[in-house]
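Private note to self, pasted from the team thread so I don't lose it. Backbone tokens:
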């Protein structure tokens, strides 16, 4: 069960306002979710639920500049407060930014992170309802309603924070809303890469932290196994900022590198997503591309290291694989970004263990008419 507490009813507006608010009385709602790209995408079901529950309201979102592309064109979000740290060089600039955003008289603020910047905007808003997960004691004055969601898929956990408002999730998934122009541009780019009329698998092998990144030599071995077994299959090796050299090195390790398409740098997140939408399957580490695959209805298989199990969308089309399924790994899912144990949770998950899982997933869930 989701439980909630009204911890502090001192707000800047009438203390007599009913709770939960009458839907027709809500004019503006603010969602606070700054980072990372995947986490911001996982907040889109909450935006959809809020827009549906408060049809007269504007739904605004406070997020970082790098995350904006996954939210563009979303019909449930009407305005953005985009944090660009380079444009806010001093604390005064930042304070004025928050003050301007807070001046829009929000009826509800839902903070999914409780980061210092989120807390600052939430507090300055003086909204009648300032909602989050149960905060530590020293943050209780910031949030007057808090929730204690049950463990669940990450997007569902965020949606459960809205339960005190009378909002119930019904399996909503993250969504990216691509345009036809973006899909046409993706077709042109795939043609240039030799994949336009080809079935292909998308792979995101990079990650900023080694305990969450399956070794490049393992990815190269897996690609060779798949290329041998699937002679007509192409491969689209996508990557994030700073990962181009890593992915090019991975491709150079492959025997069938002529079938491994690596897009040029500067492709942009939305164009990369439009290309991924045409893939039969997305394979990669626990990072933003796995959530983009869910948002685009592309089946996915994720190789897990230090991350937890709560990031997998609960559907047969989206699965994960980890060393603990095959052997004892005492440090599995440590959630750390550094490792003192030789990356055992990734090293023990060898390509010969992953390859059958990929082939099984392709057979059972990756038949996509029209692609």
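Design output:
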């Amino acid at each position: 069960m989701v439980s909630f507490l009204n911890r502090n009813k001192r707000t800047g507006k009438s203390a007599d306002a009913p709770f939960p608010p009458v839907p027709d009385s809500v004019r503006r709602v603010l969602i606070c979710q700054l980072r990372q790209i995947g986490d911001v995408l996982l907040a889109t079901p909450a935006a959809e639920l809020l827009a549906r529950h408060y049809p007269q309201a504007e739904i605004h979102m406070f997020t970082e500049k790098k995350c904006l592309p996954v939210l563009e064109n979303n019909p449930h979000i009407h305005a953005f407060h985009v944090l660009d740290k380079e444009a806010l060089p001093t604390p005064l600039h930042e304070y004025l930014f928050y003050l301007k955003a807070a001046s829009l008289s929000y009826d509800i603020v839902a903070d999914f992170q409780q980061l210092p910047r989120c807390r600052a905007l939430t507090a300055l808003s003086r909204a009648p309802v300032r909602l989050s997960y149960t905060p530590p004691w020293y943050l209780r004055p910031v949030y007057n309603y808090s929730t204690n969601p049950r463990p669940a898929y990450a997007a569902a956990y965020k949606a459960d924070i809205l339960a005190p408002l009378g909002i119930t999730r019904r399996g909503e998934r993250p969504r990216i809303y691509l345009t036809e122009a973006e899909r046409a541009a993706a077709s042109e780019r795939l043609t240039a890469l030799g994949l336009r009329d080809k079935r292909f698998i998308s792979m995101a092998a990079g990650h900023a932290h080694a305990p969450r990144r399956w070794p490049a030599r393992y990815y190269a071995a897996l690609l060779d196994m798949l290329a041998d077994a699937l002679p007509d299959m192409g491969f689209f090796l996508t990557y994030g900022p700073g990962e181009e050299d890593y992915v090019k090195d991975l491709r150079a390790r492959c025997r069938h590198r002529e079938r491994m398409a690596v897009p040029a740098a500067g492709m942009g997140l939305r164009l990369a997503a439009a290309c991924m939408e045409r893939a039969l399957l997305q394979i990669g580490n626990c990072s933003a591309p796995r959530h983009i695959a869910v948002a685009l209805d592309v089946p996915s298989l994720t190789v897990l290291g230090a991350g937890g199990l709560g990031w997998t969308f609960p559907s047969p089309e989206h699965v994960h694989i980890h060393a603990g399924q095959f052997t004892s790994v005492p440090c599995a899912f440590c959630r750390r970004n550094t490792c003192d144990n030789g990356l055992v949770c990734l090293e023990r998950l060898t390509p010969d263990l992953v390859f059958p899982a990929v082939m099984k997933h392709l057979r059972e869930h990756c038949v996509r008419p029209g692609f």
